[in-house]
Structures are given as C-alpha cells and as structure tokens.
Specification:
Oligomer: single chain
Structural class: mainly alpha
Shape: elongated
Low-confidence stretches: none
C-alpha cells in the first residue's frame, strides 16, 4: 500500500498542472488505500488465533480457505493497480509537446515499473 501510495504522490507532484490527471491520481490513491485497509482487516480476522488457539495451529494451507481467497483477491488487485499506475503517466506524457521518440522513451522509463 505504501509503495503504491508513494507513486501516486510522486505522480501528483509531476502532473500537478493537469487537473483531469490530478483527479484520477486522487481516485487511484484513495481506492488503493481503502482496499488495502479492508484486506488487512480481513487478513487479521482470518489469521489471528482465537482464545485457546496458537499461531501455529491457526495456519491453514487449504487453497480454498477464506484467507487464501483474500490473498488471491489482493494479488489480483495489485496487478490491476500496477497497470493503472503505468497508464497514468503514459496519459500525462502523451499530452506533452515533444517528439514522439522522447515521449516513447519517457513512457518506457515509467513502464519499467511493470517488470
């Protein structure tokens, strides 16, 4: 959550003059923060042992368990937000007045984050 939020703050500083992009950066930051808070609460609920149980006894390796489902949803959302973080600067860079070669070079620098 904090790594993605840092990128949203960086994008906000870089693309501050563009009001539409600023709005999408705010939306992305708020959705990411809300999602990761919600999944953290769900993971705590499923993983913290109840009264009389131990931490080791609470480990469930079943791939159909609720905590595994939360993990799959969180990783899928992480991939989706990575692509979102790639498209935001690409849209901002495409609106700049510079040659196409420089635009593609800058987009490829931001695109290295997908790796």
């Amino acid at each position: 959550m904090f790594a993605r939020l840092t990128l949203f703050i960086l994008y906000f500083q870089i693309f501050h003059p563009n009001p539409n992009l600023r709005r999408w950066i705010w939306i992305g930051g708020l959705v990411n923060t809300g999602f990761y808070f919600a999944t953290s609460i769900a993971q705590f609920y499923y993983l913290i042992p109840g009264p009389g149980k131990t931490w080791i006894g609470n480990i469930n390796l079943d791939p159909n368990s609720p905590n595994a489902t939360v993990g799959v949803v969180a990783s899928s959302f992480g991939m989706l937000s990575d692509f979102y973080l790639f498209t935001l600067p690409a849209i901002g860079i495409m609106q700049l007045q510079m040659s196409k070669e420089r635009k593609l070079g800058l987009i490829s620098i931001f695109g290295s984050g997908l790796l």
